[in-house]
Amino acid sequence: MESTETFPWLLLVSPLLALLPIYFLLRYIGRKTQTEDYDKRAHRREALNCPRCQQPMQPGLAMLGRGLIWREPDAVGAGTFAMITQALPNTISMNIRPAYNRAWRCQHCSTAVIDYTKMVKVS
Ligand SMILES: [Zn+2]
Question: Minimal CA–CA distance to 108: which of 49, 60, 61, 64?
């Protein structure tokens, strides 16, 4: 008798319990990510030359989606199923209006430089 009354509760609660680790992971990453308002002028003043061909680079904003997954050349594993936990800090936006990373790109040799000291919000 009692078990039939608790069954619908289990159906409701089980999916929520399964989502709890994801919720806490996203909250942890959101708190760890440093974000500030984007300063376009400061970004333009920070002129970079391409590390590959030494041409002046164009400033811009990069959205990295699931984050910048970094792997050392000799590292084993990861690859296809790169986890959100392997992303470099300040490269995953948890905001509804996504935050970006300051970046520079070289239009001559298709090289990009990403700044992940913090993320920036564009108003
Ligand atoms: Zn270049």
Answer: 49
